[in-house]
Amino acid sequence: MTDAYRPKSRRPIAQPLRRTATTAVALCCRLNVHPDLISYLSVVASLIAAVCFWYSARWPWLLLVAPLFCYARLYCNMLDGMVALASGKASRRGELLNELPDRVSDLLVFVSIAHSGLAHMLLGYWAGIAAVLTAYVGTLGQAAGAHRDYSGLMSKPWRMVVVHAGAWATFFMPQVSVELWRGATLSLMDVACVIIILGCVQTMIQRLVRIVRALSQGT
Predict the structure, then answer these.
(1) How much is the pTM?
(2) Where are the domains of the chain?
(3) Of the candidates 31, 157, 164, 46, which has an alpha carbon nearest to the alpha carbon of residue 100?
(4) How many Å from the N-terminal Cα to the C-terminal Cα in the chain?
(5) Which of 39, 87, 159, 174 falls between 20 and 30 A from 26, CA-CA?
(6) In Å, how far from its chain's centre is CA 12?
(7) Which runs of consecutive H residues, i.e. helices, occur in the chain?
């Protein structure tokens, strides 16, 4: 389909990871699975991860399970765009439906961490806010006429990697904490949230600089 809609900006996907989805993309196209359905499934995966984090203080083994659904969410996020292009179903509407579930997924994960009892509530919420703002900077640049920027230390996949590290470290080393000052301590999930927040700040700054430069050069 030569006249099919093609998104102007797409998240770069490493070739080895792209190859893992070849069979899934072909199967989805054969079964006529709509890419929007895959986008919605990413929210379902995030919701399951969120439930696992929410109850992880009561049942710590859920910390081993939750990151797996975070990765399932990422896989769906990759798969929906690939299926949309392969099936000729890419559209402007699809771009909206691809973006909004992502932000819902971020909030589901980090709000549940905030209420898990394993991290300071404010840190969990600020990690969620930082994640949403980081994506917002990219979409803002695209709306202003630049290409969508995916650079920076704390893009969506790396946020989930840090969450995974924090969850498994908490499970295997539940008594470990980081001492600050005046007796204040951070749990390992707190540390993960702080890393995400600081990484998101760096990512937002880097993306803003690149977007402003691109706009000033008219590219």
Answers:
(1) 0.88
(2) 15-217
(3) 46
(4) 27
(5) 159
(6) 14
(7) 15-20, 22-30, 35-54, 62-87, 92-114, 121-144, 156-172, 188-217
Distance (Å, rounded) from C-alpha 57 to C-alpha 49? 14
> Helix, strand or coil for residue 184?
coil
- For the chain, the average pLDDT equals 88
- The answer to whether 155 touches 17, Cβ cutoff 8 Å, is no
Contacts of 85 (CB under 8 A, 6+ apart): 6
CA angle 82, 29, 36 (to 5 degrees): 60
> Closest by alpha carbon to 29, among 82, 76, 75?
82
Q: Which of 8-12, 99-103, 133-137 has the highest mean pLDDT?
A: 133-137
Burial of 102 (0-12, 13-18, 19+ CB in 10 A): buried
Residue type, 140: L
Structure tokens at 72: 């399932």
d(C-alpha 171, C-alpha 179), whole Å: 19
Decide if domain 15-217 falls under CATH 1.20.120.1760.
Answer: yes
